[in-house]
Every structure is written in structure tokens, then in C-alpha cells.
Inverse folding.
DNA sequence: TGCGGCTATTG
DNA sequence: CACAATAGCCGCAG
């Protein structure tokens, strides 16, 4: 096929069912594709030119991944929008309104179909409405539209891309923002791949582990209820007197249950009950019950059935930057799977896992974002809490709690004394955190080192002054302060992590090793056994490349612990 | 039926 | 039990 593009092009791509349009950024070269040529043409463009693909949203990435394509580079307008504007909301209408400086508080909606309206078959001819907004009906029509409309869609993507590039370069004091935009885009693409690939799981092993908590798989609903009642009885049998309608799933009921055996607690959380195991035999039974109940409801047979495919892969939905500071999130328990289930995460025959986690990532990030020379010097130690402890004249554990407390905004408790030591030993880092907290308390927006806006203004219900007690207002301001203070560290750590992940993804493209899990500071790769040593080297070297790219110019050292293992639980 | 509270799990 | 997340069940208001 004769391609109209040249090496180094940036190419906007818009796809629908069986139709596609690709448009080069620096000219008017276009390629219109139908179902018969699309896969082959896109693969050829990728292979020969390796362009940076521009698309409106990760839906396009999902489409291409489902088609067997693994693009090397992209620019995800949605991901970059969230970086620039903060929050989790995106979508073409909002992106466009922001690019044109239009009011985003009331974006045009597609009229909801009701009993009286006729289904509309004719889509609007123009993408833009007279008021400048994108017409949502036109966007909806894209999916059943012709290639000409997709060409317009791609051209609009190019327009937004150019504008985003300019915006990022104009951000004051954020020279790395354009790089963040690229790694955030890569992370979004990686999310599409994680959704498609899934995490290898040994279902038989998972069922053995689940059975060890709640017994074999129930035959039906009645059987399940009977087994649950038996578990309840193991707790309730310790209780003297009549049971009434006591429900172990009701915290108030558990509280009164404990009161009946002479135990008074403000709440019934496990860490609190843990210390009361010796008080009465029912406490131990209750804690065992809680563990089983957790497996039964959240990580039991239903969980396996719902999220594991016939290919033995556990799949969830991935978001590249949900929430406060832009960490990756995942559903289906991929981010909070109990440690007891990890032995079931097993590499397939002929494969191994390459697992690596960043060591002490948050305090190292703090040293980088605050430009604190003394704290940066501490990062040259493999265990940076050791030099901090020496400098403060406290034990390592106290130093660790103090540093974490400073980043989370703790003001009371054991770490509070050492906190004052931190202020004199590392004044630059502490002042950086304090400034972020003050700004957030006022309700002013923050921006991470890599350029992500952390919105403080839009998150709160706007209360009239005086219609809330002074104490509550102060407590909420303090909460905002802790949130903002932590977002500077957690958000920058998320940016560093995604830079690392993007590098690893790119370097592993030529070999048979793929990222199958991202866990905030940990990467898990599924690798052909023969490639594992190469993959492990890529992962380890990737940390150095990420620190050069993300924290170039600072004297902060980042470290990773890498191992090649057969199952997830084999890691140290 | 939707929402806040409580609980558990992870980084 | 600080910061973040997903997810389940319960009680309660509408």
C-alpha cells in the first residue's frame, strides 16, 4: 500500500465500525479506510512510520488493541485534558468547550429519548453548533457515519492537540508537563491493553484458597444460605441467652453483642478487636467470621465467575487517572486482592512473572519535588529512613512514621515529636508540604510537579458562611490541607510510576513480555521464560531512565526491587 | 431505590 | 487508622 504519510508524522485517527480516517498533522495528507483494508493499513503505518497517534479518547485505543494493534506512541486528548484541568471528568464535548473557552457548566446534552419523541435518523450535518459547542447528536452519529465525518472528527482532534501542546508549554514552572502528557497518554493506552490482556490466574488454586475460608462451592442459593448460617452459628454459639434477631452484618448488632459479654468498644473494627482476643472467646470467633464473610461476599466464587474469562485471565476496568492526584485505578479487586489469594496468580506454562516495586517512592518523590538537598542526599541510601533517623537522633521506625506523617498531614500521636525534628533537619521539604497545605486549606487549586491540576475549588458543597459551626468549618479546612499536601507527593509519585511503566512498555515491545498489572508502585510483567532476564533488566534500567526523564537535574536517587518469579506470592 | 455509615482490603 | 482507591451490606429517607 502506498501511504500518504512520512516518517515522524503525527497522525490523528478516528475509527468507527468498519470505517476509519487518518490525518497527518503537518499537512493535508489523509487516508480513508474501509473494513477490508483498515487492520492491514494501520498495522503497516505503525510498523513503517511509528507515528504518534492522536485520538479523542481511550475508546479508540481499545478499538485498535482489539484489532491486534499495539501502537508505540499516542496522544490521548482525554488524558491530557484531565491533566490540564484536573478531576476525572472528560469527554469530547467538555474537551472542546475548554479548548474554545466556552462555559463548561452546562454542556449540551443529547435529548433523552422519551415516549413522545421520534427516533432521529438524520444526524446534524455540522459538527459545531452555532454557539461553538460540539453537537452531541453529531458525535453520537459518528458511529454510524461515513468516512467524511470521521475525517472532520480527526481534523478537530488535531486542532485540540495543537492547542493542548501550547497550553502545556505555557504552564509556569512546569517544564516537564509535555512529557507528562505523553506518559499519561501511554498509561491510558496501557489501560486498554491491561483490560484486553488480563492477569493470569490459576482458577483451581484460587478455588482451593477460597474453600479453605468458606468451604466448597455452594450448589445453589439455598446451600449458600445454609453455609452462611453455619458460619454465623460458630460465633453466636458463644453467646449466652436468647439471640433475638442479632445480625453479625450489622455493626450496631455486633456492638451490643460484645456489650453482652462485657466488652465496650466505640466501633468494631478488626484492629480494635484484635487487642481484645483474650477477653472473651467470641472475639476470636468473630474475627474469623469477618475474614470468611469478606471472602464470601467480595473475593469468593462469585468474584471468580464474574471476572475470570475462560482463558484463565482475571479482567477489570482500568482508569489511567481517576481520583485526587491521578493514580491508576482498577476494578474487579485487582488493586485490593487479599494477600492470601496471591498464590493463585500464577504465570502460564513456559512463562514467568517479572515483578518490581519502587522502594520508598513517596519520600524520594518528596525530596525531588521540594528540591530539598538534605533529603535528596538521604535518597542515596538504599534505605533512606536510616540517614533520616541518624540525623534526627531517633530510631528508624520513628523516623519512618514521622516522614509518612508529614506527607499525610498527621498532627498528633507518636510521630508528632519527631515531626519537629524534621522541620529543623529538612526545612525545605517541610516548607514545601506546608505551603501546599495552606493553599489547599484556602480552597486554591494546586498543580503537581508534572503539571496535573489538583482541584480544590470544585470538590466542595458551597456552604453559606455561618451555616456551619466554626469547628466543622475548621475541620474541613484541615481535611483540605491534608488532601492537598498529600496530593503533591502521591500525584507526583503517580506521574513517576506512569513514566516508568511507559518506558517498560516501550522497551518490552520487541520481546514476549507484557505488563499485566500496575499497582501504584509495583509492576508485574508476564514474560516468556526465555525473555525474563532481558525483561528484568529493562524494568531495572527503566527506573534510571524514568528518574532522568522525570526528575532530571535533581540529585534524587530512585530504586527498585526486581525479581523473576512463578507466582505473585513468591516475591519477598 | 439511592445514599451515608461501617467495614475490609490494597498501596 | 493520617493520604488514596474499590466494594460489599445495613439502615434509613423518600
Amino acid at each position: 500500500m502506498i501511504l500518504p504519510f512520512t516518517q515522524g508524522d503525527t497522525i490523528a485517527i478516528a475509527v468507527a465500525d468498519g470505517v476509519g480516517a487518518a490525518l497527518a498533522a503537518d499537512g493535508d495528507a489523509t487516508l480513508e479506510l474501509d473494513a477490508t483494508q483498515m487492520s492491514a493499513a494501520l498495522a503497516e503505518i505503525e510498523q513503517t512510520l511509528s507515528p504518534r497517534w492522536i485520538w479523542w479518547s481511550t475508546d479508540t485505543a481499545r478499538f485498535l488493541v482489539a484489532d491486534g494493534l499495539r501502537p508505540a506512541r499516542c496522544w490521548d486528548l482525554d488524558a491530557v485534558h484531565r491533566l490540564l484541568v484536573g478531576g476525572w471528568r472528560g469527554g469530547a464535548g467538555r474537551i472542546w468547550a475548554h479548548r474554545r473557552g466556552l462555559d463548561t457548566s452546562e454542556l449540551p446534552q443529547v435529548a433523552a429519548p422519551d415516549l413522545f419523541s421520534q427516533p432521529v435518523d438524520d444526524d446534524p450535518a455540522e459538527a459545531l453548533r452555532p454557539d461553538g459547542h460540539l453537537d452531541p447528536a453529531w458525535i453520537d452519529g459518528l458511529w454510524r457515519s461515513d468516512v467524511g465525518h470521521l475525517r472532520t472528527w480527526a481534523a478537530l482532534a488535531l486542532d485540540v492537540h495543537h492547542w493542548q501542546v501550547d497550553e502545556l508549554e505555557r504552564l509556569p514552572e512546569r517544564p516537564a508537563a509535555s512529557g507528562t502528557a505523553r506518559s499519561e497518554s501511554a498509561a491510558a493506552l496501557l489501560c486498554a491493553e491491561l483490560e484486553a490482556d488480563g492477569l493470569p490466574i490459576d482458577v483451581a488454586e484460587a478455588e482451593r484458597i477460597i474453600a479453605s475460608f468458606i468451604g466448597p462451592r455452594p450448589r445453589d442459593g439455598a446451600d449458600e444460605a445454609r453455609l452462611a448460617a453455619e458460619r454465623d452459628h460458630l460465633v453466636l454459639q458463644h453467646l449466652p441467652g436468647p439471640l433475638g434477631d442479632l445480625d453479625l452484618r450489622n455493626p450496631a448488632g455486633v456492638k451490643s453483642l460484645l456489650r453482652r459479654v462485657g466488652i465496650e468498644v466505640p466501633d468494631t473494627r478488626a484492629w480494635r478487636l484484635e487487642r481484645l482476643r483474650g477477653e472473651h472467646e467470641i472475639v476470636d470467633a468473630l474475627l474469623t467470621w469477618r475474614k470468611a464473610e469478606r471472602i464470601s461476599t467480595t473475593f469468593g466464587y462469585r468474584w471468580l465467575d464474574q471476572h475470570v474469562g475462560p482463558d484463565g485471565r482475571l479482567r477489570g476496568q482500568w482508569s489511567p487517572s481517576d481520583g485526587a492526584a491521578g493514580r491508576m485505578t482498577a476494578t474487579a479487586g485487582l488493586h485490593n486482592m487479599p494477600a492470601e489469594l496471591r498464590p493463585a496468580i500464577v504465570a502460564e506454562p513456559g512463562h514467568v512473572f517479572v515483578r518490581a516495586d519502587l522502594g520508598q517512592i513517596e519520600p524520594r518523590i518528596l525530596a525531588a519535588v521540594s528540591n530539598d538537598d538534605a533529603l535528596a542526599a538521604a535518597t542515596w541510601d538504599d534505605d533512606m529512613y536510616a540517614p533520616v533517623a541518624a540525623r534526627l537522633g531517633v530510631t528508624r521506625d520513628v523516623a519512618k512514621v514521622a516522614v509518612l506523617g508529614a506527607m499525610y498531614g498527621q498532627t498528633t500521636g507518636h510521630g508528632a515529636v519527631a515531626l519537629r525534628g524534621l522541620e529543623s533537619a529538612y526545612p525545605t521539604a517541610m516548607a514545601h508540604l506546608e505551603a501546599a497545605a495552606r493553599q489547599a486549606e484556602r480552597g486554591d487549586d494546586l498543580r503537581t510537579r508534572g503539571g496535573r491540576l489538583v482541584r480544590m475549588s470544585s470538590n466542595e458543597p458551597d456552604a453559606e458562611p455561618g451555616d456551619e459551626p466554626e469547628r466543622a468549618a475548621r475541620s474541613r479546612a484541615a481535611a483540605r490541607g491534608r488532601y492537598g499536601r498529600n496530593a503533591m507527593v502521591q500525584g507526583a509519585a503517580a506521574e513517576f510510576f506512569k513514566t516508568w511503566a511507559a518506558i517498560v512498555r516501550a522497551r518490552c515491545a520487541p520481546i514476549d513480555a507484557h505488563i499485566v498489572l500496575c499497582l501504584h508502585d509495583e509492576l508485574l510483567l508476564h514474560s516468556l521464560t526465555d525473555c525474563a532476564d532481558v525483561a528484568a533488566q529493562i524494568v531495572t534500567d527503566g527506573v534510571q531512565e524514568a528518574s532522568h526523564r522525570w526528575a532530571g537535574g535533581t540529585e534524587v536517587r530512585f530504586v527498585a526491587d526486581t525479581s523473576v518469579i512463578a507466582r505473585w506470592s513468591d516475591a519477598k
